Amino acid sequence: MGKIHRLDEHLANMIAAGEVVERPMAALKELVENALDAQAHRLEIRLVDGGIERLEVHDDGEGMDTDDLRQAFERHSTSKIRSPFDLFAPKTLGFRGEALPSIASVAKVTATSCDGNVSNQLQISYGTPVAFRPVSRPQGTSIIVEGLFRKTPARLKHLKSVAYETSLCVDLIEKMALGRPDVAFKLIANDEVLLNTTGRNDLLETLAMTYGNKLARQAHPFSVSDHDFTVSGLWIEPQENRANNKSILVFLNHRLIRFFPLQKAVTEAYGSYLPPHRYPIVVLHVNADPSLADVNVHPSKWEVKLSKEGQLCTLVADHLVQALRTTFQAKPLSRPVIETFSEQVPLFDVVRGIEPLPPLVEVNEASPTYRHPTFPVLDVVGQLHGRYIVASDPETLYFIDQHAAKERINFEALIDHLDDKVSATQELLVPLTVQLKPSFIPKIPDYLSALTAIGLEAERLSETHLIVRRVPLWLKDGTQEAFMAELVERFEEEKTLSLASLRHAALATTACHKSIRFNQQLTLVELRHIVEELSHCQQPYYCPHGRPTLIKINAEELWKDFDR
């Protein structure tokens, strides 16, 4: 008997589901794309327990008649392609005809649709049709998915916490809303409204609703085109940046994609405006002839192959470079208005001493008892470009990053003065308000617990705002907001964070904000003092963020270069 046989339809759909529907977020993406392809103007998405228990997508699109609703859940059924040309130049978000049968094979699905004339409901339970009946509904389609992966426990066990799965779904809808600001998105998770956009086709307004008003105030619209591409969107000023490139959003013909060459080009365009290992926030809407893109290279259509990608990258990067230069160029100095005052006779003769200005670098007179055993004894030569300390020993020339060096010095000083168990706190005179993205809302309870563990007292002010009333003494003024933003990023990237990790992040942020900056001119005495302080650190060669504090050039290499 032969070994090869044909898979039955249900098993084939389950295998396809493994490629297309690996978690609730993936199912949600397919359903929302179908709604957008159906010309919906309003979408309501509901989640119960991160979509694991229940996921709903309701739209006001074209809807389906009786035959279309029956056919929609058959494998490879689609209204979006009819010829090979349509496959290689798709004008819709979906086209394979695998999403609905794949989802229905691993969940209970209830689909209700009305095309304006007839309205029907189809029920499928883990691949088996259960009921088909006429119902009453306005024009549009509703898809309800329940018990996802309940009969496939191997997949269910790979899902994360409800909060994590919820945040993935909300993050997806935030991005899709930025891709379609002309569509109103309403997202409700466990009866709480997390996102509600207006659909007024205002990208800046949609950015404010997803990323917050503070970031939107630093956003700049742009538009650029050539004979192949038209690109529009928003670029955000570089002081608002992220730890990864996930906030460089690329939409190709309204399709959210991962396109690393363009993300790299955007990051390089920001260049020296960003700190090391940080990435900008940019929303890019790329419109091009569909034949230039191959979106059939990834099961979930996240990645594409794009003809003339170098041309697109150059077009966008050149425009951003020019926009940044124009925005951040030095402003002309305006002449001050000089007012004249009549001399006033003092009532008392008071002799006032002139108070000296505080030193630029705080000097600790106490002589440290520890010196790093491998740190060289250096003779400070001077300062280069207001950024680097130039020093030498008999055999080597050293360049010391003054900001990174002072970060390390401050970081270790903070550690020395921090009690590992109990830290004194102080109440803020003016409470600090922190705005969070809607996708972060499910993680707020864990976030508040983490803040409490390190001495910050915060509470929820509204759906997307926290208020901080008390902070530990070691978290200095001017650093609290930066630290909390960094902690949000860490929570977005990692499922859990240890107390030690939280303290390290807080201290590193505080040390960074207390440090001297680039382009800050220092005296020779101050330069020598930084080098001396650095030599007494436990780890003098790297800042708390892992960047090197100094590099060296061997004298022999210089002699060779000068033919000595």
What does this structure look like?
The chain has 564 residues and is an alpha+beta fold. The protein has three domains: 9-159, Heat Shock Protein 90; 218-326, Ribosomal Protein S5, domain 2 (2-Layer Sandwich), CATH 3.30.230.10; 365-418 and 474-564, MutL, C-terminal domain, dimerisation subdomain (formyl-coa transferase, domain 3, 2-Layer Sandwich). Helix content is 33%, strand content 23%. Strands 5-4-3-6-2-1-7-8 form an eight-stranded mixed sheet, covered by helices on one side. A five-stranded mixed sheet has the order 9-10-13-11-12, with helices on both faces. It has a four-stranded antiparallel sheet with strand order 16-17-18-22. Strand 20 (457-460) and strand 21 (465-472) form a beta hairpin. Helix 12 packs across helix 15 and helix 14 (480-493) packs across helix 15. The longest helix has 19 residues, at 309-327. It is elongated and about 90 Å long. It starts with 8 loop residues before the first helix and ends with a helix.
What's the number of domains?
Answer: 3
Estimate the mean pLDDT confidence.
Answer: 80
CATH topology label of the largest domain:
Heat Shock Protein 90
- Which descriptor suits the 3D outline? elongated
- Poorly predicted parts: 330-367
Q: Which CATH-level-2 architecture of the largest domain?
A: 2-Layer Sandwich
Q: What's the CATH H-level homologous superfamily of the largest domain?
A: Histidine kinase-like ATPase, C-terminal domain
Strand content: 15-25%
Helical run tally:
17
Instruction: Output the strand order for the largest sheet.
Output: 5-4-3-6-2-1-7-8
